[in-house]
Amino acid sequence: MKILLVRLRLVGDVVFTTPAIRVLRRRYPGAELTYVVESPAAAVVHGNPNLDEVVVVPRLTGLARLRSDAALGWQLRRRAYDIAIDMHGGPRSAWLTWASGAPTRVGYRIKGRSWMYTIVVERSPDLLPRHSVANQWDLLTPLGIDDCDPRRDPVEMAEDPRAVTAIRERLAKAAIDATHPVILIHVSAGNAFRRWPPAAFEELVVGLARADARRRIILTSGPSDATAAARIAAQARQRLGPLATAVPDLGEFDLAELRALIERASVYIGGDSGPMHIAATTETPIVALLGPTLPERSKPWRDPRWFSEIVDVSLPCRPCQQRTCEPGDFRCLTWIEPARVLDAAERALAQTRPH
């Protein structure tokens, strides 16, 4: 049997499909599993032990994209898949699922695209307090698969030995060793509605550094706000004076390196973004800052034995469509006080983890 999975676009959403990959391997141990993903999130599934092949789709536009997709569609059809599952639901993923020619094609009921599938699954409303992993798991129910549980099927991302070595060398070059608790803070998000204010991050960094001079606080940011980490780190160093070495500059990281760094860290702190869900693939304690999204939908999907604490504010306007802030001041994030996050971080740091 040959099974094709299609999930394009965002890093976090690709992470959310990894429990489904595992259960498909468990249900069909002899099947050939292929995963189609766009290049920015490909590192999430590269090396996944339950996949036989990862097909990386380039991010193109215009005629170049049409030509690329046509060639890929023909390639997928020639492979004669038995089952194709569109775990995305976008126009491009729907077309690739249809183009595969698989006799069983599963996808969400979406206006204008449902005809491309042979089995149509109802899609949960975006604002329903139900985890995104469970929403994507619905696509497996026609195959007789149900009952998703993070204890048995957490999210996963394979360790990359190259990245582990690179991070070890970069930490050593910065004179960071096992005596230094590493705190990793991701300060950006692809959606501006999910970004905690820079001044709040700065206050958090200063508080963590002043509480213990051994700590090394590493800030990262994504392509949507690439300079955010550098700006916040510079402001924090200026305030810390002699303690400025607590906030080293290790440069940028690719996704595999980011996971390796999170694995080494004593705690990960950040908002609802791809890196937070990559952190959930490790045992590193997580402090998650959730604004417009609900914990029931976006909390770390992993074994509850591993420390995860949600810091948020209960408001009648949560959750929202993240198009317009009804109060106008993004209070779901701006009302999260740095002191609360600092307290949560200290509780996370109290968890003993060998490095």
Describe the structure.
The strands form two sheets. The chain has a six-stranded parallel beta sheet with strand order 3-2-1-4-5-6, sandwiched between helices. The protein is of the alpha/beta class. The protein folds into two domains: about 1-145, 3-Layer(aba) Sandwich (Rossmann fold); about 165-350, Glycogen Phosphorylase B (Rossmann fold, 3-Layer(aba) Sandwich). The chain has helices at about 10-25, 40-45, 60-80, 90-100, 130-135, 160-175, 200-210, 230-240, 255-265, 275-280, 295-300, 330-335, 340-350; strands at about 1-5, 30-40, 55, 85, 105-110, 120, 180-185, 215-220, 265-270, 285-290, 310. The protein starts with a strand and ends in a 6-residue tail after the last helix.
Give the helix/strand layout.
Elements: E1 2-6, H1 11-27, E2 32-38, H2 42-45, E3 53-57, H3 62-78, E4 83-86, H4 91-99, E5 104-108, E6 119-121, H5 132-137, H6 161-173, E7 182-186, H7 198-211, E8 216-220, H8 228-240, H9 255-264, E9 267-271, H10 274-279, E10 286-289, H11 295-298, E11 308-311, H12 331-334, H13 338-349
Parallel strand pairs: 1-2, 1-4, 2-3, 4-5, 5-6, 7-8, 7-9, 9-10, 10-11
